[in-house]
Amino acid sequence: MSFQIIEQAPKYDVCIVGSGAGGGMAAKILADKGFKIALVEAGPNFDPANPEQRTQLRWPWESPRRGAGTMRPFGDFDMAYGGWEIDGEPYTRAQGTEFDWFRSRMLGGRTNHWGRISLRFGPLDFKRKDFDGKGDNWPIGYDDVKPYYDKVDKLIGVFGTRENIPNEPDGYFLPPPKPRLHELYFQKGTSKIGIPMIPSRLSILTKRVNKKRAACFYCNQCARSCSVYGDFSSSSVLVNPAMETGNVDLFTNAMVREVITDGNGKATGVHYINKEDLKDYRINAKVVILAASACSSARILLNSKSAVHPNGLANSSNVVGKYLHDSTGSSRMAFMPSLMDRKRYNEDGVGGMHLYTPWWLNDNKNLGFTRGYHIEYWGGMGMPAYGFGFNMENLNGMVPGIDGQTKKAGGYGVELMKDVKRFYGSLVGMAGRGESIPQEENRCEIDKEKVDKYGIPVLKFHYKWTEEEVKQAAHMQDTFEEIIGNMGGVALGTKPGKDSSYGLENPGRIIHEVGTTRMGSDPKKSVLNKYNQAHDVPNLFVMDGGSFVSQADKNPTWTILALAWRASDYLADEMKKGNI
Amino acid sequence: MDRRESLRTLLIGGAGTSLLLSCKLDEGTDVSELTDIKEKTFDYGRTPEEEARDEALLEQDFYTDEEMKTIIVLSDIIMPGEGSAKPASEVGVPEFIEFITKDIPSHQTPMRGGLRWLKNESYKRYEKDFIDLSQEEQIAIIEDIAYPNDVKPEFTQGAQFFSRIRNLVTTGYFTSKEGIEYLGYKGNSPNVWDGVPEEVLQKHGLKYDDKILAQSIKPEERNDIEDWANYQI
Fold this sequence. Notes:
The complex is a heterodimer.
Chain A: E1 5-17, H1 21-32, E2 37-40, E3 82-83, E4 92-93, E5 103-104, H2 123-126, H3 128-132, H4 142-156, H5 181-192, E6 198-199, H6 234-244, E7 248-251, E8 254-261, E9 267-274, E10 280-290, H7 294-303, E11 328-335, E12 355-356, E13 373-379, H8 414-423, E14 427-434, E15 443-451, E16 457-462, H9 467-486, E17 490-491, E18 540-542, H10 557-576
Parallel strand pairs in A: 1-2, 1-10, 2-7, 4-16, 10-18
Antiparallel strand pairs in A: 3-5, 6-12, 8-9, 9-10, 11-14, 11-17, 13-14, 15-16
Chain B: H1 3-12, H2 15-23, H3 48-59, H4 65-78, H5 93-103, H6 108-126, H7 135-145, H8 156-174, H9 177-183, H10 198-203, H11 210-215
């Protein structure tokens, strides 16, 4: 068998690896500026408006498994091709450590299904070390990013309210939707104990921001990706307009193996495997931008070894792959007797909560842990899917029936049918999403033994939570019980205790993993400079969550978008000046 | 005759009928079963790999006809219908259980073993298979396993099984078209959310405060393009 790398003819100005939030934004900004771009995506093309791919507005019975999560981890209708495990693309974990890696292989990546929670990092979030002495400061502050957050708000659209909370910066907000019934109950409970609850900040169009995207029609299905582009997905909102400039060539099903460099260590392009013909290809470009997701970009760098870069590309610091960190997560469910026997009406609303709780204890230094969390809420009369009506025996023995008699838990027949109706809409839940302190030892590296089915060496993860995160989860659980009690609810199940680290999810589970190619001023201690440019390789950028020094308790997407825009502006200037 | 056809047969009652049905060429015959061209049974935005797996599972059988008959009887005991709401066997619940058991293998041993437990218990008590018992006899056994917090030691395994099949029947029922209608779910259609209906707020002693009313989206403005001219942050 001969081995040949087929060269793609044109030389591009920029080759972007990955089409999610970071890659999509870079493609949009640079295409608008007239650069010729190769956009490389490891999965198939995707457009939520394509009827053959659409899952929006489908009913559970349209799926033979009624929407169960067998094929797609968040259910049949969720719009992420991929999951925690992908056939032929394994990863490994060091013994005694945990990390679950969610990958989505499709145009737009994970932005097609994400929660649309679009929070700005606040001034404190960039400088936590100044405040609590732990971790590291970012080399930039809120004022550096603010102009770009403003631009992202206006380009993409996000609803919310101006609240003037110091570390929860206001933005250009579209008006929010009114709260749902269970959210008003939550608000009643939280207000009694001094916990704030404010309109959530989601990138969903309650009003339009341009003529190409329609307003939200309240189906609650943002996780299925919106066919009228009423929410933000990189595919529909960034890549589509970038393609319309005529400056972008899209390469789909293209699995990048490594960045190719010349004898001087400068990036000259990428080497990828076409998943359809299984041949090797090469794209030549003046600049390479990695935006393949924090861990995938680290993997590409570590696999891009050469005589000049024996340690992997852009890794003279030996920091690539290190400081991997995810948000913390812990949750609890409750039953609300006052929400039984509800009047039926359509309360789908937008895809996600209408109210949330931002971290409210920044000024309290005596919590026993140093970083905060926000709280997300769910509930309501949602569309049933696989799992609906499970474990009625845990509910229907708790309260008197319509006849006033408390019956034996469980049962069958007409009584059970009626019970399912009675309890519909009476379950609520909440989840904390918190900031962890990045640790150097928490990392991904190249597994010395394993390759994937394309022959590319795979990642091996090392990740352990510290006491900080465990104590934070314990605080979440105490808070949840307090809220439930104050809203008139009954907490379900056993309160997670020390033996389960207070319900703290495995690292990776919240899918906010960042930090593997952190930015910094010192090239010995960081991979990128403050413009997402590799210290070692000036024509190489990383524009996904890899650049994060620390992931606040906020969701990372809005910051990825703002930083990618900022870095793209910088890159364009440098190219015009002839510096790159 | 494929599995879906045989399930239909079990529901109609007897293989003989089915043979007649599937061999008779009239307007009602599904021609796709007579050719190699297959219509997609489920069309819901699958990737090629997902579609292939669905089709492969649909082709396979897991339950024997005897097991399937028991599942049909149990489905209707658990969700018998009410008023105009049809019983579980008429809204696709047995077909769903057949599929999900293949799709989620962790159901397989508990379901097969549980059905066998039930058969054994039926023979012990009445020297007959469960499906051949009178309704009273069937219910007598079900009563012993339907209340997991209140079950005699000799029936705990049976109760485990019953909780599982209750879950599957309930979820199958309430994710069917008819079940969702019975439940009264009103969404999954384009609409305009303008808050909780006033009478519902009143019933719960809640209201929207002035701040919420002032800041929330006005339905009539939803199609306007936002203008930031006078917006300050």
